[in-house]
Structure formats: C-alpha cells, structure tokens
Design a protein that fits this description.
- It is a single chain.
- It contains 3 helices and 2 strands; from the N terminus they run βαβαα.
- By secondary structure, it is mainly α.
- The chain folds into 2 domains: 31 residues, no CATH class; 46 residues.
- A two-stranded antiparallel sheet has the order 1-2.
- The radius of gyration is 22 Å and the shape is flat.
C-alpha cells in the first residue's frame, strides 16, 4: 500500500526516515512491505569438496588479478561507483 508522507503522523514519518536513513519530504510517497526470509538451503558438499572449490576460486581470482592494471584507491572507487550508477540511477556512495 502506498502512503503519502503528508498523510503520515509525525511518529510514522520519523519511523520512515529512520528506516530510509534520510529525511522525506511531504510530496513523497512511501510503501512498506514485509517479506518472508529466504530459505537457506544447506550445502550438499563435503568439507573436502568445499576446500577444493575454494582453492579453485582462489586460483581463478589470482589469474584474473594478474592481468589487472593497478590503479589508486580513488580510481578504483570511481570505477566501482560508475559501474553501480550505470545500473542504479541515483546511487550515492556512502561516505
């Protein structure tokens, strides 16, 4: 259900702002939805198989990193932010 912020009580508005982590304006609308937690499926792998899979992943990422151009932390952050913004308009990095 959609709720217009202008129609919320001060307590409800404060709760929404606390959940969102930002102030909301009276011309905005909010929707709150409860979802059931995802079911966690236990692994069917043995400890040996898990260790082997981890070793394969480590080797894969080592190969991928070997060909990577070294960049500064600032450049890395800018690249990641640009990539996220390309799929999430309005993304603002947490500072």
């Amino acid at each position: 259900m959609l709720h217009h912020v202008k129609d919320l009580s001060p307590e409800q508005k404060s709760a929404v702002e606390a959940l969102l982590g930002r102030a909301v304006s009276s011309d905005e609308a909010v929707s709150v939805r409860a979802v059931a937690p995802a079911t966690i499926i236990p692994s069917q792998l043995s400890q040996q198989e898990r260790s082997e899979a981890l070793q394969k992943l480590d080797a894969y990422f080592a190969r991928a990193d070997a060909g990577r151009k070294l960049v500064s932390d600032e450049e890395e952050e800018a690249i990641l932010t640009e990539a996220i913004r390309s799929v999430r308009r309005g993304y603002r990095p947490v500072e």
